[in-house]
Structure formats: structure tokens, C-alpha cells
Amino acid sequence: MTTPIDMALAAEIVAAGTASGKTVVTAESCTGGMVAAALTDISGASAVLDRGLVTYSNDAKSSLLGVAGATLASHGAVSPETAAEMAAGALAAAPQSHVAVAITGIAGPGGGSAEKPVGLVWFGLAVRGGAVETRRHLFDGDRAAIRTQAANEALRLLLGGLRP
């Protein structure tokens, strides 16, 4: 059974962003907009979610988020370098926002390799005025489970980015 999206966490993000006057932006690949959708399921999300970008293809990562072609060629779409550039690019695309989260991974069932197995997801977190952080997770389960776990982790990262 797939773990559901943590709607209590999404509600905490909306409450924290509303209280602080901070807004967020998402840059999603393998989650396909699940993080933005979770936030918009919460009443009042318009005060917190500035925009959600689904950048599934490499071209979208480059044209919408400014991920360098050289980064994609050298490291691939599922890498800390790409996750960091996605998060930084999302924050740059939303100059009024305070926090950006990026998600890029291999949800499966195909597409994995020995170096990058199914379930590997890289996250980028950019907080305005701070350094971009990356995190690596290896999730278990089928495609739906991996995507949901990744969305929940991105929500946790967003909430952490909103807190001082």
C-alpha cells in the first residue's frame, strides 16, 4: 500500500508561510506536480505557493530553470548537480519567493542502473540569501510509492526552509 501524501505537513507549510509572509516555489520532475498539488489542496495556499514548475524533460530543466546543458551531459538529470541547479533556477525564476525545492529522480519501474537505481531521488533546497543544499534518498516500492515518498520529503524540506 502506498503511503499517502502528508496533508498535515502541507497544511503546516501553508500556515508557516502565511504567518511569516514567505512564499515558496517548486521545481518537480519525477513527482510531476504532486508537491504543488498537495499545497493547493489546502485553503489559503495562494498566500504561500507562488508557482510550481513541472520540468520533466531535460529541455524543460534547461529552458525553464536554467540547468546547464553541460551539467545534464556530465552528471545526468538525476544528480546533486542538477537538483541544485533546478532549485537555484526556480528561486531565480520567482524573485519574490523565499524558498524553492527541486525534485529529480528515477521512479521506475524502468530507467534505473547500477549507479542510479530505481528509487534514487535527489532534492535541492534553495533559501533566498543562503546556499543551495542537496539531499539524496533511495526510496523503496513501486512507482506510485516512490513518487509519494519523494513528494513527502520535498514537503518536509520546504517546511524546514520556511522555519528560521
Task: Give a brief description.
The protein is of the alpha/beta class and 164 residues long. It has helices at 7-20, 34-40, 58-65, 69-75, 80-93, 143-162, and strands spanning 24-28, 49-54, 99-105, 120-127, 133-138. The protein is globular.
Q: What count of structural domains?
A: 1
Strand order of the largest sheet: 2-1-3-4-5
Q: What's the mean pLDDT score? A: 97
First-to-last CA distance: 35 Å
Structural class: alpha/beta
Q: Output the helix-strand order.
A: HEHEHHHEEEH
- Identify low-pLDDT runs: none
* Shape, per Cα inertia axes: globular
CA radius of gyration = 15 Å
**CATH topology (fold) name:** Maf protein
What CATH architecture would you give? Alpha-Beta Complex
CATH class equals Alpha Beta
Instruction: Output the number of helix runs.
Output: 6
Roughly what fraction of the amino acids lie in strands? 15-25%
